[in-house]
## 1
Amino acid sequence: MNDYIIEMLNITKEFPGIIANDNVSLQLKNGEIHALLGENGAGKSTLMSVLFGLYQAEKGEIRMHGKPIKVNNPNDANAFGIGMVHQHFKLVEVFSVLENIILGIEPTKNGLLEKKEARKKVMALSEKYGLKINPDAMIEDVSVGMQQRVEILKMLYRNNEILIFDEPTAVLTPQEIKELLSIMKDLAKEGKSILFITHKLNEIMDVADRCTVLRKGQLIGTVDVKETTKEELSKMMVGRNISFDVDKKQSSPGEIVLSIKNMTVASKTHKNNAVKNVTFDVRAGEIVCLAGIDGNGQTEFVHGLTGLEKIESGSIHLCGKDISNASIRNRSVSGMSHIPEDRHKHGLVLEYTLAENLVLQRYWQNDFHNRGFIKFDQVKNYAERLIEQFDIRSGEGAETIVRSMSGGNQQKAIIAREIDKEHQLLVAVQPTRGLDVGAIEYIHKQLIERRDSGKGVLLISLELDEVLNVSDRILVIYEGEIVGELNPQETSPQELGLYMAGAKRDINRGNQHGA
Amino acid sequence: MAPNKNQPLDFNRRIKELTKSKGWASFWAAIMAVALGLVFGFLVMLVARPNSAIAGFRFVALGGFSRIGNVFYFATPILMTGLAVGFAFKMGLFNIGASGQYTMGMFFAIYVALAMDIPNSVHWVVALAAGMLGGMIFGFIPGVFKAMLNVNEVITSIMFNYIGMYLVDMWIQSNALLYNSAMTRTRYIPSNVQIPSLGIEGSNVNYGSVIAIAIAILIYIVLQKTTFGYELKATGFNKHASEYAGMKGKRNIILTMTIAGGLAGLGGALAILAPSAIAGSSMTYEPINIIATAGFNGIAVALLGNAHPIGIIFSATFISHIQRGGTLASLVGYKPEIIDVVIAIIIYFSAFAMIMNNALGSFIKNKLRKNKEKDQSNSVSTEEVAE
Ligand SMILES: Nc1ncnc2c1ncn2[C@@H]1O[C@H](COP(=O)(O)OP(=O)(O)OP(=O)(O)O)[C@@H](O)[C@H]1O
Ligand SMILES: [Mg+2]
């Protein structure tokens, strides 16, 4: 008997137009945390989906404790003790947290649901691992962080021994990430074996024992994390050196592009306003970052700003024009580009092709139609230009159905669309969520390039690194209010953290008007 | 990751792609659904009259081929109502109100034909246009309710089926220009207002069928080639994204329902203005408080055609074909009621199978695979024991 609990040997998986996994092997040791690293579209999710039985590999075999096994569907995977938390969660929105956890293996007594037992077991697990949940809340009402804890409890409830985490940290706040990583360590200590996909090298350095790197569907190698560095890992991953520091010139702010005065937006979940009396300006040629812990009104602020929701009071001026009550299209035409927070909900029509999605903001422009008839050639040419320029990878190019693309490449498509569109102000909400380091570097360069070409950039981000490295000016939002304005060159992560947690605030901030 | 790395694989993949393409898949789904419907229809015939079942079923399945003209003639109204349902469905709207829209269109056409003085040469064209307008009004209203007040279009359109039917019956009965109370039907429509016949012996088939097919193609073009179609489908797929992209959701809902209503209304007009084979007569409408079945058949037509305009041409023709063949089954002793049941079973089973295929297809596939795998894994585990 060898000490590998799972071996995936010479796995090949093809999709139309692309070989997602090309003769890839991966060996998971009992009780280790094994990171899987690779660029967007490298084939990480695909490889894990093969292990979880969602896809069948054309070639190769899977072994468990050295014996070949066949995993034909997730139920088989479950029977083998393999559980998976997907990149995009698969929970039933209208079911409660508890119901989601026990879904499919509900305990019954005389044909009736025995929820009490299940509840006890779930709460015991929740306690044991510090996975805080509210068992009776509906999934649609709980935060992304809790949804993820639900997914994890789902695996633990099924006594899974092999746990696959597909980019679990992409959607979490820094605090939640810390908690998750320590939970993963505890699980490994207990003998569970973990496969962990992430784009964040720090997390790999923190918790992983070994790391397997994929590039364009091929295996580059597996390394011991103790014996490697971040730089080396990123070089394995993209084949070149990546700079982690964002280098940029001093900003030279110009005219006011966006002016927000006393903006208030109602909350959908509680009686109080989600955004309270927010006032600030964004100038041409600067990157202003709205920093804060998730759930402090950022989403509502962005919805109010971009027109997805009505504002209660206050005003918004874009390039001097009052757009407080303008339609979304009107704001877009007036020069606002918007990279939305939720790419599947707002950013994309998943059933449409990549080309169709790339013209989502422009299909009505004369370049793309002639008296209402879409100019398909133009659309295709345009899409191909963006695909090339932004390195959007997919199986069938412009004709790829977006649903089949990797998460990171879906994001790149949105970014390409919004940056290429005529704009004076770019509202970027967590633009690098789920992107690989190479792509993040590229996006950051793009944001700075936007700034240097005289556009205003409003960045909404939860990542401290991103906030501190990219922005020229930081506004901290706490419970719907702007509580401080910081200069990234003078402040420290600690100070920023205090503001974000509401422990520190500038009293006179309410009277200030922008820079 | 060059796609053509493996030349031999590439060829196989091409074939796989072709046979796996979406159009191909829904085509096969439709064929399977129809086959299933026919099997069930046959079973009912077998139960009803075992001895004539085979002969009767041959009439149902093949009889239509001997009366192609009439197949197209009877396909026309349900082709239009099918489009009315399918078009709205592309935007995620469930237009149950095709019956009311159809009836309203019929009334408008009758009114123009009988009560308005219009130059002979364009009279039938104006009557058709009026029919379309009547349907549009009855699509517009549920559309407005949906867009402005977020009232579910299913509820309003069902209500408007009744409102339309009762209104029309009332208007007709109270207007001597339209109503022949001795015959309890509408008066004959003069032959110059009837749609020109295509002149096929023993059949009423007329330019209406040509118009309907042309409109199906037009709708296909609108959906596939225009910015309006792009918006409409985007809204149907993802309402939030369409809003984010600045599409005018409310306007599009109203527009879509109005167009859908117009299609059904035109269907009603095409039906009532069809030429009669008997000189001096015409199609008539009998106000007897019954909701037009063409609307409900339209739902089946749209489902079987997968809401695709070209698919709808075929599904409407198929359903009409079964209906025509069905009438012949009485030659071997089947009662008209039984024939109606058989036809309804074939139509609705086919449509039902199509929905099942869409919604439960993957579920069933998984179940089947799982069972298969169970057998396999059983054999694997015995191997392991043997080791
Ligand atoms: N169901 C599918 N159909 C067709 N192509 C697919 C499908 N799933 C994945 N692909 C393609 O396979 C490739 C690998 O995708 P995968 O999702 O495994 O990438 P990934 O490494 O997880 O990337 P990311 O970091 O962006 O999530 C991509 O090019 C993608 O377009
Ligand atoms: Mg992935």
## 2
Amino acid sequence: MKAFSYERVSDPAQAAARAAEVPVAKFIAGGTNLLDLMKHEIEIPKHLIDVGGTGLDEITPTDEGGLRIGALVSNAALSADTRVRKDYAVLSRALVSGASGQLRNKATTGGNLLQRTRCGYFYDTGMPCNKRSPGAGCAALSKGAATRQLGIIGTSDACIATHPSDMAVALCVLDAEVETVTSTGEIRRLTLDEFYQLPGDTPEVETALQAGEMITAVLLPPPVEGRHAYYKVRDRASYAFALVSVALIQAPDGTGRVALGGVAPKPWRRDDADAALPQGASAVMARLLDGARPTQENAYKLTLAERTLAALLAQE
Amino acid sequence: MDFNQSTEDNLFDHARVIGKPHARIDGLLKVTGRAPYAYERHDVAANQLVGYPVCATIARGKITHMDASAARAAPGVAAVITTLELEPLARADSNVAHLFGGATVEHYHQAIAVVVADTLEQARGAASLIEVRYEEAKGVFDLEDAWTRLQSTGEPVANVGDVDAAFAAAPVTLDETYRTASQSHAMMEPHASIVDWSDGGQMTVWTSNQMIQWTRQALATTFDIDAGRIRLESPYVGGGFGGKLWLRADAVLAAFGSRETGRPVKVALPRPMIFNNATHRSGTIQRLRIAAGSDGKITAFEHAAVSHTLLGGSGEDAVNQTRCFYAGENRRVAHHPIDMGLPESADMRAPGEASGLAVLEIAMDEMAEKLGMDPVAFRILNDTQVNPEEPSKPFTERHFVECLRKGADNFGWAERNLKPGGRREGQWLIGHGMAGAYRGAPTMTSGARVRLQNGRLIVETDMTDIGTGSYTILTQTAAETMGMEMQDVEVRLGNSAYPTSSGSGGQFGATSATAGVYAACVALQQQIAKRLNVDEARFEKGRVVAGQTDMALADIADGEEIVAEDSINFGDFKDELEIGTFGAHFVEVAVNAYTGETRVRRMLAVCDAGRILNPITARSQVIGGMTMGVGAALTEGMSVDTERGFFVNHDLAGYEVAVHADIPEQEVIFLDTTDAASSPLKAKGVGELGICGVAAAIGNAIYNATGIRIREYPMTLDRMIDQLPSTER
Ligand SMILES: Cc1cc2nc3c(=O)[nH]c(=O)nc-3n(C[C@H](O)[C@H](O)[C@H](O)COP(=O)(O)OP(=O)(O)OC[C@H]3O[C@@H](n4cnc5c(N)ncnc54)[C@H](O)[C@@H]3O)c2cc1C
Ligand code: SF4
């Protein structure tokens, strides 16, 4: 870890302005991801702007009939909120399947969206990694690499890492939007699809956020009726990132929406796959995973994704 | 005290304290955070500095250049010592890899520098400023290649009878190849040491280590100094599992740091470095052949295995148990340790047997199925009471059959699922499996000193308590022998100033160290008898009774201290005997029919391990082993990058040990047995028996649940997903 300076701000717009103005600044919220990355010197910010005092820790109803989740609402508080549990159960379920109780107490909504990948080579600074050091090459794409956990779709020749968030998969299936404030004080709203970027040639760029831009809230549209389910598949029963996860909202008539976690650099969802839901899991996956480029070690994720959805559909 | 023949009826057969359930006496210290572990011993030496290791990022080659000038100039840095400044250090017998010194890199994350600073943050921050350039060399990292090259070559360690003829004649045979993964000890407390070698004279080491004398000797060899100048303390160890049997880089780097700065220096290996810097259990590839008559009697075994090691190491000898666990006249077993460029493989809990039984006990299950036999009955039929290679060598006490029978009864084996894939609850397939367990019961010379002070007894031995309960069972032993209450006995451990003990490892610790304390207590009794001028005395209720004398122990020496010291030496009469521990594991699993996730639902172990010294601490050992067995079966495996030559998932997020949610109800039954040939206490070890066979029992249960036979560990869902039932309804 390198020495850094630190300040606390109370106003989101001021935070964004400061972040654009001070060189190599970063926001810190719960710190559960950023501090680890700083210790490993995977992230080396020179200045930390603590946004914990910006008052964005409330969940409030919106005029459209949805919910506005402040960026600083903890994962624990969000998962336990009675409105979320009743109307957005997929989100609650995704949250409680992630990390551990202690971590969820600290982890925030904004920080969760921006957590970095868990690719083992990304974490080992002795290894070349395009995401960590642009242009250095990708150890995971070399011969002999261990890739069982890595991505199968949306990846590129520069990076095959996944985005590890469970929460984001649920937000994706809920059509949530991310609200931000830019360094010039402008408020933006981005769909999750617009928010997350695919790696292409620049895997270090993970989101559409501009320099200094801060997440202020996540906006949930009015509730979507139907069954809300989240199935996270992992090797051990708890406290592990997903090999594959499936978020599902299904109406009584069989129509609905599906998003996948653990397979791509962002939560993975396609309209044509949603439309195929009444035809069953294999029809959905034929579309959703069309164009997948798995490695030999992680090709099982194709089958696993389909079977996991099939398990959910069989549960009713 | 010499232990030259099987013991007769003695005080432990009428025990008051030994064999009774006593909660661990260091428990309160531990749960209140007051048991001092090595890295937190701020009080033992003033002005401590913190060292942070720098590790190589290639697997093989040479360092051509190191520039530490920026690190030396960084804030708070007191010293930087790089490997290029030193000649390669002498290597102690117990180590295979060089720990530090010289330009050669033998494995990934080998220590190549240490930065010493006022704070951890300063040391860690400066560590990354060191520039290193390498000349990489080609290495061999793929065990599969070695297996292809080497199988069916080499000298067998045992070759009895005519194996080929037996296979040719047998109506039922099995020939399968299996794979076990490399594993990390993943103990809670990392390797950590504080070393004070400020003046280059006396070296004091506060560390976390299982073997005080080995490590003191290793330090003496490494630094070429007299062992008498080295003092080691390791009173509490937060788990070792074999990972802390040896001197490792933490103590070496701290010693250099201390000599350079003239201040005490502490170093802990950061978790992400432990997997590649320290030792691990090697993965194996094993081929097992079994031949049997149609009556189910085994006629031949052939077992060949490879494992990896750095040049000069011994790898993971997975074939050993196959030599004597089951009957059968013909057998050939061979192990090839392959020199490879992966980090140093060495002992981990039940070295050899854990991997060997993980395979043998699946093969036995497969064989039982081919024979159409119940796997319990098949094992009972093939029990042996003598070493089948040397039938003149009997097992002293072998109650394996009783373990099997009792286990089957208590588990409800008769109600198990009989048809693989045949029992379903909702989306889950339910299966049952079992396996046999066997592990040797070695003993080692072990010494102790006892001091009687005003009716209180102090026991000193360099034995360690690695979370196992040594403090408690040694207190029980001394209290029993001296006729005292446990609260009047104080046991002091893990200090090189105390008599040399067996140390903790190879499941020899409890048996050997309790016998050593017994020997010292008997020596004390003799001194007391002499003082009282009697030939024989009885010690009971805190008093000594001899003839007319009946005196409180507190009164015999007028406030003076009486000190006695002795050790137990085990005679070679044991060479003519097979002394082992035995067990049977039964498990129930649920496998998700859609996803292949496996969850263990119930586990039972029945153990035959001689006298159980304390059922609470013994049970802890066994359920700990069972838990590790769940990890070995389902999740624990270090992923090898076969080109770059290292273990990629080198932290506890990537290397998944079992968590609470993975562990179901665990039941342990100890047979009421004793082994008079083992020790005066008639005890044997249980710490390694508990893990033996567990993984296979789970693998067999997965087969029973799904009909899918997996022959590669860990048995993750990707190894079965293509064979699971169709999801069409
Ligand atoms: C052991 C472990 C296990 C875990 N397991 C899981 C799991 O199973 N599933 C899962 O989904 N997650 C898991 N996580 C990740 C966890 O969810 C994240 O660490 C957490 O959500 C991050 O939130 P935070 O508030 O602590 O973020 P921080 O660490 O404070 O910040 C993370 C990033 O977000 C940025 N940031 C924070 N707030 C804002 C904001 N308002 N605007 C702009 N940028 C911001 C920071 O600059 C930083 O780059 C695990 C983490 C750990 C340590
Ligand atoms: S997959 Fe991405 S994160 Fe992993 S090593 Fe390659 S570039 Fe880095």
## 3
Amino acid sequence: MTTAHPPLPADAYGPDALIMKGVDGLNWRLKDYEARGGYRALRKVIAEKMTPDALIAEVKKSALRGRGGAGFPTGLKWSFMPREFPGQKYIVCNSDEGEPGTFKDRDILRYNPHSVIEGMVLAGYATGTTVGYNYIHGEIWDVYQRFEEAIEEARAAGYLGSNILGSGVAFELHAHHGWGAYICGEETALLESLEGKKGLPRFKPPFPASYGLYGKPTTINNTETFAAVPWIVANGAERYLELGRPNNGGTKIFSVSGHVERPGNYEVRLGTPFAKLLAMAGGVRAGRTLKAVIPGGSSMPVLPGEAMMRTDMDYDSIAKAGSMLGSGAVIVMDDSTCMVKALERLSYFYFEESCGQCTPCREGTGWLYRMVHRIETGHGRPEDLDVLVNVADNILGRTICALGDAAALPVKSFIAHFREEFAYHIEHKRCLVSIPGGYATVPGVPLGEAA
Amino acid sequence: MLSREALDKVDRALTKYPPDQKQSAVLAALVIAQEEKGHLSTEVMDFVAHYLGMPPVAVYEVATFYTMFDCTPAGANKLCVCTNLPCALRGSVAALEHLKQRLGVELNETTPDGKFTLREGECFGACGDAPVMLHNNKRMLSFMTPDRIDQLLAELSK
Ligand SMILES: Cc1cc2nc3c(=O)[nH]c(=O)nc-3n(C[C@H](O)[C@H](O)[C@H](O)COP(=O)(O)O)c2cc1C
Ligand code: SF4
Ligand code: FES
């Protein structure tokens, strides 16, 4: 939970936390991390002279999947890095956390930065890479500064540098910051940005493992993905896997936002029932009932509350329910929320953040926003819902990066699950939601006339 | 154009990248320049371009792509409110309305005394602290209820 000011209560992130275990918001320094068993994994790998292949095999066995959105198996990704490449290779950490609803990487970086550093050094060891960058969201400047301090600590203690712990292993790490562009969270846009350019996503293939930063082989993982690695290496892949579900190893930090009593970050075992996670966040706010949940960040399909209450929080269960785990951002909406207004805000976001490179995304996101806006403000036409779905279908799968899909999926899912609310807006020029104090146009007021 | 102190910071940023990739420091350099000059005039951007050995147009492109850069003067205090959905579910629209009313400006306007500029932002990655605001890009303000906004304005108006 992030809502309290440090020191956070014991078990603030939940009883099953691994990454955030024992973290109280103040004990972020190297000595604290070491006291919690930190850098034990790196010491072990060096002392045992573990081979890179063995390390990759261990990460594969853990079933750790990328925590940045796509859920790609991490060990497999690491194995794509060419072993015998003659030039410089890079490890890049994606801390450009900007997917609406996601705020876990900020907590990892400010409260447990050394877990990310250790994870990145281990990734460097596994892939034979000696330089890394952590690209940090520009909006969290104090976190960027703290991470720089943590790097200094690690360097002074011999965990970074040209001769780590006297072993001859080398890994140098630098912090880099963004400055306000959601698209830079997309991995190839991030690389462009790191090269000092506009963040325009690249065509894939080639993938970063063959053509990444400065055109060199590069592995990019999310902050939380790196932070999970030290525990796996120190305690064994088997144990990690067993904590979660087959194919869904370990724990995941869920950022719970919106209409709950205690918004915050909760680290739970993959496969935990949604109802349990919701209870950890204090439940839906007093007096209200659950209406809808976006379980994986704003780019993922919305699901009705009842469907979520039957779902477990792991990649495969959420996929079966019709959405995706994504970044683990759980946006909770109660019965005072107008789904048209909620979608209007999300569509505006994708319209604003489209980089404009591909026509379906550049034009399509504008269409989507303008049409949802028109419905929300009382100017919708009966044919609009079918046109909206049609526009969304024409974006899906036709763009350079996944931002196009991210704009289309919410539209399709909001209409699929809450069509009657959209239809009511169009027919009656009024909002169907009649509960004051929520996210809806003031009850009883015709649309477009509210303050 | 930039002070010695500012250039030292840029030089420090440059040490992070390969010697033939000075352009990687352009975001850092522009942030440092904006902080010293208040906004990024063409002269400042040209200076940064020259310093990093980049074509000026490449620097303009970067400065206009990233939303936290100001290429025209802003007020002494730039307040940016996140209004994306997770924050909007927890009162950020009301926070923005309160600010508009207290400052007497609309979005993207500056108060006549030049003290405040009001902006709207997209997710800062801090939705658990909603409503959240950024003060002059670098200071994150959490749980900004109307009374806390009033306290902030009193502090900044001194
Ligand atoms: C528009 C867009 C925004 C993204 N934003 C982020 C982000 O903020 N953080 C992140 O880790 N991944 C983000 N991703 C996913 C990355 O492209 C990439 O899949 C991820 O960093 C890989 O790391 P992982 O395998 O550890 O998840 C984004 C993708 C898209 C299409
Ligand atoms: S899909 Fe959108 S954001 Fe992605 S590259 Fe194309 S235009 Fe840019
Ligand atoms: S939505 Fe406002 S900080 Fe994320």
